[in-house]
Amino acid sequence: MPKNKKKAESSSSDSDEGPVDRNPPPEKKAKMGSRTDDKEPTWVLQGKKLVKIREFKGKVYIDIREFYEKNGELLPGKKGISLTPEMWRKLLSLGDEINEALSSLC
């Protein structure tokens, strides 16, 4: 019986904001710490789509990724790809072949 009484008390409210969560979930922290641009060479492809050379777990990657802004800070999003230097060099070596195939399509 006390449960019903407690429920009725908590649901009655004078505001139009709805129920108030007294224990909001903790804010999620960004997975990667903020780094300065001088530590990560960066090139803008378009808008917030960037190419960066980054280090992760002691290895270097070429990161082609869409970034988003949160609290005035630019953070990496899920949309993107990280290439090892070997994969990057392979991609560059395929450039002429890719351009040729692209020319036939557009």
Automatic annotation (TrEMBL):
GO terms for biological process: positive regulation of transcription initiation by RNA polymerase II. It comes from Euphydryas editha. One of its GO terms (cellular component) is nucleus. Its main location: nucleus. The keyword DNA damage does not apply. InterPro entries: PC4_C (IPR003173), ssDNA-bd_transcriptional_reg (IPR009044), Sub1/Tcp4-like (IPR045125). This is Transcriptional coactivator p15 (PC4) C-terminal domain-containing protein. Residues 43-93 form the Transcriptional coactivator p15 (PC4) C-terminal domain.
